[in-house]
Structures are given as C-alpha cells and as structure tokens.
Amino acid sequence: MYKKQTSTVALQSQKWIAQALLRLLEQYSFKEITVTQICLEAGLVRKTFYRNFRTKEDIIHYIIDQLFLSFQTVFDIRTTPPLEIFTHYYEYWAKEKRLLTILHRDELFYLLTRKYVEYVDSVNLYFFQSHNGAFAELESYAVRFIAGGMVSILEHWLECGFKEPIDKLTQLTETLLLSANMYLSSSHLD
C-alpha cells in the first residue's frame, strides 16, 4: 500500500503523482505506463515516487481512497438513511464516469472491489447492527457479498452506458440489501 503521509510536501507529491497517472491513462493503458513516465509527467524524481508509493497499483488505491474520503465528507454514513446513501452513491460515481471507464478498460475493477471490502467493513453497513452477533462468524462473508455486489452493479451500469436511472438502481440496491438482512435475521443461521 501507499504510505499515509502527513507533511504538506509529501501530500502534494502524492497528489501530483496521482494526477500524472490519470493524465497518462488518457493516452496509455495502465500496463504500458512506467514509473519513469509517471515521474516525468509529475515533474518529480523516482526517489519521491518510492517515498510515497511502492507500485503503480498503490496510486490507484490512493485515488480510490481520496474518492471514498470525499464521498464520506458529504454526509455521515452512520446516520444517513440507506436510501439516501445509495442515491448519493450512484450520483457520486456517475460524476466519476471517466475513471470508472479507465478502470474497466484496464481490468482494474478488482482494485475497486478490494477498497469496497475495506470501506464496507469499516462502516459496518446499517443492517449489521441489528443481529446481536447472531452471524459474527459469517460477517466477513456478508461484507464481501455487499462489496462485490456494489462493485458489480457499478461495473454493469458502466457497461450499459449509465442508462438506468439512479432512482431505480437505488431501489434495487436497497431491496437486495434488505433481502440479505432478512436472510440474516431468519433461522437460516441456526
């Protein structure tokens, strides 16, 4: 993973490196881009790159983290009703269509799935709270189910040209998660 920086200079370097990679991705596939190209595009030396990132994939993780942090600053996920969260979720990603297209083109959606697992786990989506530990041993499976489902819906929406209206996707997502919640509440876990 990339290094979590605190100094202003290091934070700025990370931002420049990420912006450089995004510019290069407009012209080249992810596999074609080298660390040297990224450094040249950012106007930084390789030493600065390696002080902040280990690999090119780390830059993608950084970019996705910045997007998730930005998304989370809009509202408090823990107190916002699920329907509102999902509406904001699809609105937010619709604005990031270009990045999603690049991730899809370069077969990097798996990196988005990994980040989703981290974030879903950290927010413990709303229905995790109501089961009094009844499925604690299965919680990691539920997290991966939610993360994988959310990313798959997002990727399919992209593949369909963002044709489906956000309100329909929001309703579908809530219905699917409520179905999972009903399952978890039932005696299937006994």
From TrEMBL:
Residues 34-53 bind DNA. SUPFAM superfamilies: Homeodomain-like. The keyword DNA-binding applies. One of its GO terms (molecular function) is DNA binding. Pfam families: TetR_C_8, TetR_N. This is TetR/AcrR family transcriptional regulator. InterPro entries: Homeodomain-like_sf, HTH-type_Tx_Regulator, HTH_TetR, TetR_C_Firmicutes. Keywords: DNA-binding. It comes from the Bacteria. Residues 11-71 form the HTH tetR-type domain. The keyword DNA-binding applies.
